[in-house]
Amino acid sequence: MTKAKKKMKGSTRVLENRGEGLFQTILTIVFLLMGLTFLYPYWHVLVTSFTSPDYASAAGFKLWPQSWSWDAYIRMFNASYLWKGYANTIKVVLLGWSCSLVGVVLSSYPLSKKDLPFRGLFTGMIITTMFISGGMIPTYLLVNNTLGMRNSYFAIILPACVSSSHVIIARNYFMTLPTELEEAATIDGASSLQVLVRVILPLSMPILATISLWVIVSNWNAYFNCLLYITDPNKYVLQVVLRRIILTDSKEMTSVAEAVANQTDTDIVTLRAASIMLATIPIICVYPFLQKYFVKGVLIGSLKG
C-alpha cells in the first residue's frame, strides 16, 4: 500500500508540473500577443515618421520604411510652435510636480498619525472626493471667474494638483514606517518638520518616485484644462499643439495647423507621425529611471489601511 501511494503521489506531482508548465506557456503566449498589439501601433507611427511622403499614405502593414526620409523631423525641428509647446509643457510638468508632491506629503503624513484628532473624518472626506466631484461647470466657474486664473499655468495645474488616491497611498506607506525612528529624532531635539524632511522623506523614496511618475505623466499628457482656460496661443502646451497638428483636416483647423499645411511640402501624414514621436519619446525615457521604485511603492503603499 505504501509503494502504491508513493507512485500515485509521484504521478500526481508529474501531472501538476506538466499542467503548471502548460499554463505558464499559455500565459507567456497570451502576454506576448498582448505586448505586440500594444507595441505595433507605436512602431507603425515610428515607421511612418521615417517614410518618404510618396509611401506614407499607403495603407497596409508596415514593418520597415519603404523609402527613408528625414524631412518630417527636419520640418518639425524647425517649427517654432513645437518648441513653444515643449517649453510650456516642461513648465507645467515641473510646477505641477512640485505642487503635487508638496500637497500630497503635507496631506498624507498627518493622516498617518493615529493620534491625529478627527483622523477618520478627514480620511473619509478625502475618500469621498474620489467618488463625488463638483463637476466641470462649477470647476470652470471657480477657476475662470472666481479665481481669475485664465491664461495662467495654475489653471492647468491646480484643479488636479492633489489627487485623493495619491494621498491615501502615501498615507498607507507612511504608516508602515517604524515610529521608533521618529521618536528617536524627537528625543534628539528635532522638530516635526525636521523629522519629516530628514527622517521620513529619505525613507519614502519608493512611494515618492511612484507618485512623481504618475504626476509627471499626467501633466505631460494633460490638454483638456489647457483647452478650457488658455486662449493665448503662446501658452499652448505640447499636447494641444499636437492635437491641432493631427486635426489639420478637420473643421477645428487652427493657425498652427494651417502653418503646418501651408509652409511645408512634406506630406501631412509624416508630419503627424513625427510630431507624435517627438511628443512621446521624452516621457518614455523617464520610465527606466523610476521603474525600480514603481512596483515597490505601489505594493507597500496599498498594504495597510
Describe this structure in words.
- The protein is mainly α.
- The protein has one domain (80-301): Orthogonal Bundle (MetI-like fold), CATH 1.10.3720.
- It has 15 helices and no strands.
- α1 (2-49) packs antiparallel against α15 (268-301).
- The longest helix is centred in the first third of the chain and has 48 residues, at 2-49.
- The two termini are 51 Å apart.
- Mean pLDDT is 78; it is low at 249-257 and 301-305.
Q: How many domains make up the coordinates?
A: 1
Number of strands: 0
Radius of gyration: 26 Å
CATH fold assignment: MetI-like fold
How many helical elements?
15
Derived from helix and strand composition plus strand pairing, the structural class reads mainly alpha
CATH structural class: Mainly Alpha
List strands and helices in order, with pairings.
Elements: H1 2-49, H2 53-56, H3 71-77, H4 80-111, H5 119-128, H6 136-146, H7 153-157, H8 164-176, H9 179-187, H10 192-203, H11 205-221, H12 224-229, H13 238-246, H14 255-262, H15 268-301
Features:
single chain, 74% helix, globular, mainly alpha, 305 residues, MetI-like fold
